[in-house]
Amino acid sequence: MTGIITLNKVKLIFGAALLFFLSYVLRVNFAIPLFLLSLFAYLKFSQKQSYIRDYKLLDLSLLFTLVFVSAYFVVGHGKPVFYIPFCAVPMLAVILFNELRVSLLLTVAGSFVAASVAGNDFHLGILFMISGLLSSVLVFGARRRSVIIRTGLIIGVIQAVTLFLIEGFKFYHPDRYIALIANGVISSVIVVGTLPVFEYLFKTVTNISLLELADFNQPLLQRMTMEAPGTYHHSLIVGNLSDAACQAVGANALLARIGAYYHDIGKLAKPEYFSENLSLDIKESKHDGLPPALSKLVIMNHVKEGADLAKKYKLNPCLVDFIEQHHGNSLVFYFYRRALESLEENQEVSEEGFRYPGPKPKTKETAIVLLADSVEAASRALKEPNSANIKELVYKVINNKFIDGQLDECDLTLKDLEKISAVFVRILSGIYHSRITYPENPK
Fold first, then answer.
1. Residue 408 half-sphere exposure, CB side, CA atoms within 13 Å?
2. CA 16, 22, 24, 28: dihedral to nearest 10 degrees?
3. Dihedral in degrees, nearest 10, Cα atoms 26, 28, 31, 36
């Protein structure tokens, strides 16, 4: 813990020093970095929802540096201030953090910088503030790159219209309007081109990258369809459950869905040891001839194997969290009971030895995947999957996870759990719906 705190302090000092250094080099008023620091403090101490990222000052400073450098480069080389690709920063912020609040605050701070570099041009600050706010709203939740390009074109037109209004409906300099329209398009091209770089630097994942990972031609998903078809089908259902539950409680539904697709990839190491991958004609389990202590090691090891496999295939660290946290430190109950039943006299079985290593879910999304995973697996064991039995099962599983402390480190409330339970019951009831019996053809 001490090492982590020290590292965060180093990043804090480095980020602040970077801002003040750039202010000195570019001859910008020192009130600008102070303003950004105050914005960071506001973000840091007002986080109340788990799906809002733990914003780092260094991340914000790097984005803010784009405004510094581009403004200084354009103005320093005698170019019109309208060439500053300002809207690239708010668009990058809202796509990377998936949170409008950060983008809006960066827009306000960035427009101050642009106006300051351009000789305290108040009208320019207003123009960039309007275009930045609107571009943030237009690309929020974007899942395709075409949305970013379209936003750039719209913002270019909006900037030109705003300038026309600021100049009192007089068309003084046609070249300025053309420059502002081109500025919007160029800003969107910069965003599309630099987005993978910032994803890597910030260790985050965007909706666009998540949709690429949802492609079932991805090597890991292809391996699952061939080597572990039962686990693959289970992961799809967990993804559907997680997506719907996240929408119900205001979490990131797409992130949870894709995390669910990959949460069990560790089972590819030994798929035959997991019941969902056994063929219908196979009556014996691989665990029948193994002692419970060895069986639980095989089962628990799929978490470590999954994390290693994710790193090997260079999956985003956000997805590794789903792999490591989807069981928390819960008990491998089946083999724990088997161990108790096979006890000889004067022997003891430690419950801690049959628990997953953790960590417990840290976010709403990983917690929901944990619940969906447990509920889906338990529903397969129902002998009579009717609505009443499914509802009883869902509430029982979620209650057990709550009592066991698996949800202690995430921000799910009791009200959230009630909504999640209702969603799970509705979807599982649809999956196990009844069918009419079709009459046979006598011929």
1. 11
2. -100
3. -50
pLDDT at 298 over 50: yes
Take residue 347 and report the two structure tokens written for it.
């022997």
Q: Which stretch of DSSP H or E encloses residue 101?
A: helix 100-117
Domains defined along the chain, listed by start = 2-202 (1.10.1760), 208-431 (1.10.3210.10)
What is the structure's pLDDT at 373?
95
Measuring CA to CA, which residue among 145, 136, 143 is closest to residue 210? 143
pTM: 0.82
The C-alpha atoms of residue 365 and residue 53 are separated, in whole angstroms, by 12
- Say yes or no to pLDDT of 433 above 70: no
Cα gap 96→383, rounded to integer Å: 45
Tokens of 370: 């944990």
Residue 355's DSSP bridge partners are 331
> What pLDDT shows up at residue 346?
54
Please report, as a single letter, which amino acid is at residue 15. G
Q: What is the pLDDT of residue 18?
A: 62
Mean pLDDT confidence for 396-406: 95
What is residue 285's predicted lDDT score, i.e. its pLDDT? 74
pLDDT(25) > 70 = no
Q: Above pLDDT 90, what percent of the chain?
A: 42
Cβ atoms of 68 and 113 within 8 Å: the answer is: yes
- Please give the C-alpha separations between residue 376 and each of 219, 380, 391, 427, in angstroms, as whole numbers: 25, 7, 12, 10
Is the peptide bond preceding residue 359 cis, with omega within 30 degrees of 0?
A: yes
The predicted-structure confidence for 356-369, as pLDDT tens digits, reads as follows 998 999 999 999 99
The answer to whether 185 touches 156, Cβ cutoff 8 Å, is yes
Confidence of residue 59 (pLDDT cuts 50, 70, 90): confident
Encoded tokens for 190? 């910069």
195-200 mean pLDDT: 88
**Nearest alpha carbon to residue 187 among 310, 88, 328, 305:** 88
3-state SS class at 331: strand
CA angle 392, 396, 402 (to 5 degrees): 150
Dist CA 15 CA 8 (whole Å): 10
Instruction: Characterise 405 by phi-psi region: left (phi > 0), alpha (psi -120 to 50), beta (else).
Output: left
CA 14: distance to chain centroid?
26
CA distance 97 to 329: 29
Degrees to nearest 5, angle at CA 221 with 262 and 379: 55
Q: Compute the average pLDDT of residues 423-436.
A: 83
Residues pairing with 331 in the sheet: 355
Say which residue the tokens 């799929």 belong to: 302
